[in-house]
Structures are given as C-alpha cells and as structure tokens.
Amino acid sequence: MASTRPQATPAASPSLMAAAIRALAMDAVQAANSGHPGAPMGMADIAVALWSRHLRHNPADPAWVDRDRFVLSNGHGSMLIYALLHLSGYALPMDELRAFRQLHSKTPGHPEVGITPGIETTTGPLGQGISNAVGMALAEKLLAAEFNRPGHALVDHRTYAFLGDGCLMEGISHEACALAGAWKLNKLIAIYDDNGISIDGQVQPWFVDDTPARFKAYGWQVIGPVDGHDVDAVDAAIAQAKTSVDQPVLIVAKTHIGKGSPNRANTAKAHGEPLGAEEIAKTREAIGWPHAPFEVPAEVYAAWDAKARGGALQASWQQGFEAYAAAHPELAEAFLRRMAGDLPADFAEIAVEAVGAAHDKAETVATRKASQIALEHFTARLPELLGGSADLTGSNLTNTNSTPAFRVDAAGAVVRTESGAIGRHINYGVREFGMAAIMNGVALHGGYIPYGGTFLTFSDYSRNAIRMAALMKLRVIHVFTHDSIGLGEDGPTHQSVEHAASLRLIPGLDVWRPADTCETAVAWTLALANKHRPSALLLSRQNLPYAPRTDADVITRGAYVLAEPSEVGLDKPAKAVILATGSEVQIALHAQAALAQAKIPVRVVSLPSTTVFDRQDAAYKSEVLPPKLPRIAIEAGVSDFWWKYGCAAVVGLDSFGESAPAGALFKHFGFTSENLVATVRKVLGK
Description:
Shape: elongated
Largest sheet: 6 strands, parallel
C-alpha cells in the first residue's frame, strides 16, 4: 500500500526525490504496457531543480492567476508531469497514476488541459508546446504592461518549458522561438533535454543543428551545456536565467535518456517502450529504490509537498491584489473579468450595434472588409482583443484604429502610443503555424482573446494548431481571407478548393463563410461569445452585395431561409431548395429570380455556418430544409461535403483552380446563375 502524506517528516535528498519520479514513471508505463519512460527518467533531476526550488505554483489552486506556467513540450514524457503533480500535492491521487493511459483516467497518454489538474496545455504534437509557451509569455508581458502600476506588480510570473530534440526538429519551433527573441520575452525559460536519442535511435545522423548558436541567433540567452543530472547545477542555471531582463533563455541540459536503467539508458528502447519486469528490478537496485510499485515513502512526500509554500505565495499575491484593488478598483475588476474569460457586461449591446450597423448601411464590400468593419466596433469596446496577421495585414484587414502595432523597445519594454496604449496587433511574419500555436498559448494563459489572419489556403500550415485549439476548447479566432477562386489571378496555389470542407471536419471548430456584412458581424459576435470553442471565418477578397433580410437573429442558427419564392414575385410554395454559402449566395438569389420568371418556385437558404446549423434541433432543420423538397447546393469548393445534406445535385469544384480574373473563373467553372438554373431544372425535370 502507498504511504499517506505525513504532517512532518525529515525531507528526502534531491537524489531520492528524483528516484521517486523515475520509479513512478517506469511503474506506470509497465502497468499500462504502453508509454515513454525514458524522458521522465532522464529529466527527473531537472524537474527536482525547477519544481522544488523555483516554480511558483499552488497545488491547492491550479488556476491561481499569477502562478508560473509550466509546459512539458515533449509531452510523450507525460509520466514526468503526472509524477510531479502527484508528489507536490495536486488532486491527482496514486490511483490515477495506476490508471495511466486507461479509459477515463486523469492520466492520459499525453497531457491534456482540462483533464488533469495542473496541466497548462495539451502537448504531444512536438514543437507546439514550446510555441504555446511563447504565447503564454507574450500574454504575461502584455498584461503586465497593461495592468501593473508603480508599487503594484499584479502580473509577475514566468513561463517554463521542457523540450527535447523532437520539438527542436519540428519547424514550428523555429517560427515561435524566433518571435520570442524578437519580442524579448525575458520571462520565458526553456530547458532543453539534450539526450541525443529519438525513436529511430541516435539523432546525430539526421539532427546536426548547432542548437545554442541557433537560439543565440534568435536573440535568446543560452546557458550551458550543464549536467542535467546535477540538481545544483541546474538550479544555478535557472537562477541565472531568472536575471535576464531582455532575452528569453534556453538552458541546455545534457542528460541520459532512461537514467538509472542499467541496460536501457542511452538507447532508443528507453524512449517508447516499457522497461520490462526484469529491467525494472535492476533499475530499482541501481537507483536505491527498494519500494514496491507505486509506493512512495513519507519522507519523499514531505520533500515534494508544495502546498504550504504555494499557499503562502498565493496569499502574498492576494494581499498585494487587495492593495491594488483599493488603489485601482476599475483596473482590478477588469483584470479579474478578463482572466475569467468573461466578456463585458454590455457585450450584447455592443454586438447589437455591430450587427445593426451592418444591416442599416447594407454595404457592398468584400467580407474581409466586412470583418474589419465589425472589428472596428468590437476592438474599440473589448480591450482583450489581441489581433495579428502572418504578414498579410493589408490583405486580411485584421488591424483597426483601436489596435496599434505591438512593438518592444531595445530594452524589451512594451512600446506605448502617445495616449499610453499598448500595441494590440501583432506582425507574426510569414509564420502561420507559429502564429496559430502562439494564439493557443495566449488563450490558455488568459486575459486576451487572440485572433489572427492569413489566406485560407494557408490554413493547411496552421491546421494542427487549429485542431489543438478545438481539442482544448479554446476561444481562438482565425481570420481566413481569399476564400475561393474568387481571389483571381494568383491562381491555384492560392485558391482554396478543399479548405472549407476540410476545416468543417474538425470537431469543435465553428466555421463561418458569411455572404455579406450582416452575416460577418454575426459570425464575429458568436465567435467572441463562444468561450470554449475556436472559430474560423472564411472571407472573400471580392466585393459581395448586401443580401436584404428582415431578421438578423436567424443568422445565429447557422442556416436560415433567406428568400422564399414570394420575395421574387411568385406566390407559390417552393418546389426545391438552393443551399449556398459566401459569395455563392448572390448566385443563388439571381438563379431564384430567373427561375421565378419561368414559374419555378425555389427557396434560397444561406448557410454561413454548417457547423452551427448541424447543432440545431431537428425541428428547426426540417423547417429550413423541408424533407420532401429536393436540395441543390452551390459552393466554390469540393462537392463531396454537401452530399451529407441529402442534396440531389451540387454545383461545386472538384479540381484545382486557374490563374485568371475572378469573373472569368466563376464563369469557367460554372458558378453562374445560368448554370445553377439549369441544374435546378434538371433536378426537377423541367
């Protein structure tokens, strides 16, 4: 039986504390017959140095807003963080470690935020954890600049990340770490587990980067190499890193994967395989751990227990916050609201103004411009909106009058405007994947709602980070412009064909392809209101006319009846339904009018968000799409997606585009009212 936690027991040595991690890691992996024992065993001493001597956290309150953030970027080594959370006093009992990688346990194969207390981000896809950490450090820097006042350091914490060779080999780490250097994120400290082993073996034949030189070139401070098994040496390196005032810091720690295992250390077999009963017995003897599986002695628990220190740290911060609130009550209230992820109390009013303005003006503009118009309303009233673009600001139109460019000066301080405002629009450079993962980190940290833009075709670069946002239920908003062949002359390399359908396949991601200014404003409203769901807005380059409607509220259902036959002078019940999104809605309306001239009544349904519509109840779906009426869909993208709606025909695009003006392309590929009329006639046999 595992020992209970004592009230007072002599503390164990650092080597014994590390041995506990190694034992729990190899025991849990062995029990599951699955997992990665090598990294936890190799990084155990590094973890002792950071978690017991530096990390500011409170196991009794994992959501304390000014805690240090810790990211295990090499998330396959999940038993490292599970052991640390258990030993230091989080609500992660030994039974959960016994259930490692089992159904419904709090110890899944890779760390998952929202599942395990104390996990800051879901890691596993290598390189994204360190990129999330960059976003967390960015959020800390911006919040400190926005809220701290002389004598009141309300926001003052660090972000730590462990990472391995795999994270550094993934290209996203280049994108995000270069930005961390440019932004001078001095409170970001990454510790590189330099063990030279990956799944395929010694990395030397395929990973020859000079990692310290690479990070120095980014503008990072590099410490080491240090002996990653010397707790005092790692402790000293972290202490030195904490003195940086204008650079993020990389600590290079030389380690042995599977440290302690007589026959598996320094081998690829230690990476992703259970050690086996015989090797575990030998390892227990080698590390001086005579205890049974999942048994931890009282003195080890006492040495690891961080509840008292964490409680004192949080209490001290709380005392400081109360003084801050007395001096700056409005700022304190805004800070707590934003860290809770709540929108302003008057958000509904703000949204009504944005949608109402779009309805009243009825402008003919590209929906990318409609997005900027909506953003002008929202960014002026929501200081938590943090925008950006991957080097396409002038095309994505993600900047507004309320969001000056984010800049830092030579000393690393956030530059302010003449009015004292900080920058809220980020130039990410040509780094779509890095941008998406950094936005995830910003959302995870709290305090800001991040949005960022690029062309829709480049969503492929961002895709895995978008997927991770959906998996983590993060309010992150992707602004994807140039959404179809309608972008014109840039040709098929830039023209999106499969991307809308592809994004709609990601569970938990709301995808919007609005047809005009009103639908765009509603899309922004719902994207901002969805606290636990990411959104993607697919926006046109070309101008789209306003589609008249009497009720904007129905847009929130994802699909709605835009025009009945009576609205084009035909007082007959519809014989068919045309489904359309985005720029094709206007084609549908023109086709409806032409069919009315031939006495053929059809209904036009606009589907700005199929993902939102799919969540509606059956009665509403039947009301919009009557079961007995044939359906014809039109969208300038792959046709396969639309058959799920029981369509009799689809006007789609199942090939790549061409380089030509948009008008010529729409005609060439059959996106015309004439072709849609012919398709409807064929379906109806008329």
